[in-house]
Amino acid sequence: MPITQLLERNSRLYGNEVCLVEINPEIQDTRRVTWKEYELIEPEGSSYYKRRITWSIFDEKANRFANLLLERGVKKGDKVAILLMNCLEWLPIYFGILKTGALAVPLNFRYAADEIQYCLDLAEADILVFGPEFIGRVEEIADEIGKHRLLYYVGDGCPSFAEDYTLEVANCSSAAPDITITDDDYAAIYFSSGTTGFPKAILHKHRALMHSAECEQNHHGQTRNDVFLCIPPLYHTGAKMHWFGSLISGSKAVLLKGANPKVILKAISDERCTIVWLLVPWAQDLLFAIDNGDVKLEDYELDQLRLMHIGAQPVPPSLIKHWKEYFPHHQYDTNYGLSESIGPGCVHLGVENIHKVGAIGKAGYGWETKIIDEKGNPVKQGETGELAVKGPGVMICYYNDKKSTEEVLHGDWLYTGDMAMEDEDGFIFLVDRKKDVIISGGENLYPVQIEDFLRTNNEILDVAVIGLPDKRLGEIAAAIIKLKPGSQCTEEDINVFCQKLPRYKRPRKIILADVPRNATGKIEKPKLREMYGAARLVAAQNEVG
After folding, report:
1. What is the DSSP string of 180-232?
2. Which H or E run includes 525?
3. Superfamily of domain 439-544
4. What is the distance between the alpha carbons of residues 7 and 247, in angstroms, rounded to a whole number?
């Protein structure tokens, strides 16, 4: 069934129960309440901004927006883009779009103006809904994108080039629109992370969204007593599909703005959160804050927290070992997925398999996996090849991009571009991105393996290993290392530490610098290669000259 029916069921069965809480420590002006039905909470002794909404109001607001869109001529198959930071309006707007039979098109909040315009054009979006953080960027392109699109603004102080969403939606019917939606109808267009240029538009049907909800609950066992802390951006499939576990179980979720360790722990404590999904950098920051005494665990109510899971990038085993030192009773899981496979879940470790930390796990609920060579043939167990997945969540295509679609879709199988190997117990280990493999003097070097080793050094906060051009070897491994605050570690110290590695795996260049990550926690290796690779090429050319 379409996922919109889960919202309608929750409204019918649990209408007066709180389903979403928004916490934003960055907002001091608590007067801003976009919808009056959203209850503004000002806890005693707390200065942060907090709102909450019930299931019945959630469904009502989704219906109002759906009816507004229908009044404006939106029909089945049209596309409506969302450019909002995490807030209480986000999900009702998303579900309002789905209820019309139109496709929701979430946009990355980091997009520059030209990227916003590119994605709107690629997805053929008819409407853009945006928030106050994006006024400047949208204004840059308003004359162009507004020629054939409606622009709705969510927030106070509506700019002249857009329509006021709050005023428009207030007068619309709260009754569910009479639109028939099936599992085979198109539901959403998500965008790839764009780490290799402008992003690709990923088309999914309603059945994929529904399967992601079933998959999430199967993996993590959400019940109505759970409270999910959601920190990553909702435009990303990862955050959205993990929240679908709350939707299918009819349980509460907390949308938290900011990943400061104190803010995270306070939200878990105040809202009695039982499940938290973290990105690697956030977990590292939290552990570092505990190590340094910046936060004291005894100041918070954390006994109810039952599960911490991580996704979006390889997880260093040393990180989980450290986490378990402070939280020995927590369940742990890791989830692997791509936007092309409707986010996390096509592979997962499973809370019962913590002894296999370092692996991404086995095929998830309803999924199949295989590891293949360059010709598409399965490799032997223990050998490295490309991971391919098959299941109900595989994308339909890259929208308006037949060539790229044919590169990754082979029958029902999605070729992920990730290099992996399967151990003797059938657990899959990520080796690296196919495009990130370094070929140095004829040897294949897998950066993730070197990164995992470097992270065992207590002086290192974050690390990225990339290939840099080399006249003799073709490429060399370079380690960009971010040290912990106050560390006196030097490049020479790192080189000495790396003597434990086989000679061919040792980084030939150590760079002490920041490690850039995108909004979903993935290291921006193309940016690093551009920064340091270009400089090395110039140096090599000068040397030849």
Report:
1. ---TTSEEEEEE---TTSSPPEEEEEHHHHHHHHHHHHHHH---TT-EEEE-S
2. helix 525-528
3. ANL, C-terminal domain (3.30.300.30)
4. 7
What integer pLDDT is reported at residue 148 of this predicted model? 87
HEC profile of 124-189 = CCCEEEECHHHHHHHHHHHHHHCCCCEEEECCCCCCCCCEEHHHHHHCCCCCCCCCCCCCCCEEEE
Class of domain 4-17+55-214: alpha beta
CA distances from 100 to 5, 61, 71 (A): 13, 13, 11
- 437, 398 Cβ separation under 8 angstroms: no
**pLDDT higher than threshold 80 for residue 473:** no
Min mean pLDDT across 262-266, 333-337, 428-432, 484-488 is at 428-432
For the record, the structure tokens of 511 come out as 């760079």
529: which DSSP letter?
Answer: I
The token pair at 128 is: 């853009």
Burial of 104: CB neighbours in 10 Å, binned 0-12, 13-18, 19+: buried
The DSSP H or E segment spanning 466 is strand 460-470
Domain ranges of the chain: 4-17+55-214, 439-544
pLDDT tens by residue, 402-414: 999 999 999 999 9
